[in-house]
Write a structure and sequence with these properties.
This protein folds into three domains: 150 residues, no CATH class; 218 residues, 3-Layer(aba) Sandwich (Rossmann fold); 97 residues, no CATH class. The chain has 24 helices and 16 strands. α6 crosses α7 and α13 packs across α14. The longest helix is centred in the C-terminal third of the chain and has 28 residues. The relative contact order is 0.13.
């Protein structure tokens, strides 16, 4: 078999640029190409989510096959070897038909439980692997195992800018260059901006308007629920004189669009923002073909998760940030014995989640603490979650997605700016705020960072209460063989323990819901079994009354 390896390559890609034929199938642009390996030598194959530079690629160098991804991780790239052939593609769903009986990768599941996404180079499916962002893999003819030949590294520049005036001037020029590169093909076409009301998406909208682009903004409207950012989005739209389309999100829509969101995501992503972002992309796709977002700004400029880690480093007495960083994900790391079935726990004993973040936290490439944390966020939270999630949701609706902050010259420059300009006192992203202070209202620029206020916990404890009995039915979980059957019941009854309280309960419930929905919608696993031994069969008001009575006795 080894001698025949790479006599041909079969390529399945979510979106192919240029010279290969394309077929529209199930909302994906899918190409099935069977070609001699030599055909890649003259025209490398590229996959792009933005319609600009390639996000990942395949090429032939001498007799070696090379697969690679850019460092922001905008488009996933999966591969497997089967019958002397390398198959690869940008979507898991395209590779699943090659596997007679796809099985869950236990390591991938464990990683998902820790981070709400499966860490590369794992995938949620056994035999399929993913290529990390900023990495190229090479296969020599006759070899089955690939070799990592190139790895892009975010690293601190030797000389650090400490002069605020110099930094502001350079950053303003870099932001302008970034937007110019990303609007060069638009002509007079309008674009959409996913406008949260936060700083980063507001900057994207302002830069586009400043450069004469016709902008339509789209923002989420949670009604009376949650902590809405809607007033800030309205303020930005009024300031920039652009139309603002409010996209309603409520429990009924979450219930309705959960299955299609799971299919669109392709891989499991466990954050509560997934369905709202699906609806936002769906609305934008009715008007435009290109959207911009503000993703990446927190990772580049030292967003809001860094201060606790800096405090842990200063007061914890140890330079090892592994444990504090794992805790920033607020998922099930450390709760394995309360979450997984016993036979699975035994299989996970040899795994250490620290191994999946060690490269990001490697101090070799950064001497300054804040640069080290920003590097980790770029590699772990940006490239493994935020950017590929945004790409998959956009491409499902036929949209090209772009971010001003996914710009290599800009990102590289940030590692040459002293940490004191990124985080000044309690003010995060200080130098970015200084650079855009004249573009946006002061309240938008200088207000304290707030995450997107998706009221997922409130919905799960109210309107979606009965749905939990369906999505996380104990008998179904038992037969699936992963989660403990009564996990959901213990979470809502406050019997899970530890620091998972309040809104964290809803986040963990949603993490499990998204995994189970992924199994059903993407792996096509039909759930079997049903049990009434859970609290979700009764109205939530009755359940709370019973809980109150129990507490009295």
């Amino acid at each position: 078999m080894g001698q025949e390896l790479f006599s041909k390559v079969i390529i399945l890609a979510g979106e192919l640029v240029g010279y290969w034929g394309q077929v529209d199938h199930s909302k994906f642009l899918v190409t099935l190409l069977v070609a001699p390996i030599q055909s890649l030598s003259n025209k490398p194959l590229g996959i792009s989510a933005s319609g600009l530079a390639d996000d990942c690629w395949a090429r032939l160098k001498d007799t070696d096959l090379i697969l690679g991804r850019e460092p922001f991780g905008k488009t996933p790239l999966y591969w497997l070897e089967r019958e002397s052939t390398i198959w690869f593609g940008s979507h898991l769903r395209l590779l699943l038909p090659l596997i007679p009986q796809p099985e869950i990768d236990r390591s991938g599941l464990y990683g998902y439980s820790c981070f709400s996404t499966v860490p590369t180079p794992l995938s949620p499916v056994g035999t399929i692997q993913s290529i990390p962002a900023g990495t190229e893999l090479s296969w020599a003819r006759g070899q089955i195992a690939p070799v990592t030949i190139t790895k892009f590294q975010w690293q601190q520049a030797a000389a650090q800018i400490t002069d605020e005036t110099v930094a502001v001037t350079q950053l303003q020029a870099l932001l302008q260059s970034a937007v110019e590169r990303q609007i060069q093909d638009l002509a007079d076409r309008p674009v959409g901006v996913l406008l949260s009301g936060g700083l980063d998406s507001s900057i994207a909208a302002a830069l586009l308007v400043q450069n004469g682009v016709k902008v339509r903004a789209y923002t989420l409207d949670f009604g009376e629920a949650g902590s809405s950012e809607l007033p800030y989005a309205e303020q930005v739209a009024t300031h920039l004189q652009i139309p603002l389309i409010k996209v309603p999100v409520n429990p009924k829509l979450v219930r309705q669009y959960l299955p299609s969101t799971s299919r669109a995501l392709d891989a499991p992503y466990g954050d509560g923002v997934t369905v709202p972002l699906y609806l936002l992309n769906q609305a934008a796709s009715q008007d435009v073909s290109v959207i911009f977002n503000g993703e990446g700004g927190d990772q580049l400029f030292g967003g809001w998760t860094n201060k606790p880690l800096i405090a842990a480093s200063i007061y914890g007495g140890s330079p090892d940030l592994t444990e504090p960083y794992l805790q920033t994900f607020h998922r099930l790391y450390g709760y394995e014995d309360r979450s997984f079935q016993p036979q699975l726990i035994a299989q996970l004993q040899s795994l250490n989640p620290a191994d999946w973040i060690s490269d990001g936290l490697d101090p070799t490439y950064t001497s300054e603490l804040l640069h080290r944390l920003r590097r980790a966020s770029l590699m772990l939270k940006g490239a493994q979650n935020i950017h590929p999630r945004a790409t998959n949701l956009a491409s499902w609706h036929g949209l090209k997605v772009r971010s001003i902050f996914c710009d290599l010259p800009l990102a590289t420059w940030t590692f040459g700016v002293s940490g004191t300009l990124h985080l000044q006192g309690a003010c995060e992203k200080y130098i970015l705020k200084r650079a855009v202070a004249n573009m946006l209202p002061s309240e938008i620029v200088w207000r304290t960072k707030r995450g997107m206020g998706v009221p997922i916990t409130g919905w799960l404890f109210q309107e979606l209460w009965a749905d939990l009995g369906t999505w996380l039915n104990p008998q179904m979980l038992e037969q699936a063989g992963c989660w403990q059957s009564d996990l959901a019941s213990r979470l809502v009854c406050g019997k899970f323990g530890g620091s998972i309280q309040g809104r964290r309960i809803g986040e963990i419930l949603w993490l499990i819901v998204m995994w189970e929905q992924w199994r059903i919608q993407v792996l096509n696993v039909q759930p079997t079994g049903w049990s009434w031994h859970h609290p979700f069969w009764m109205p939530p008001t009755l359940w709370r009354l019973i809980r109150a009575v129990e507490a009295e006795f």
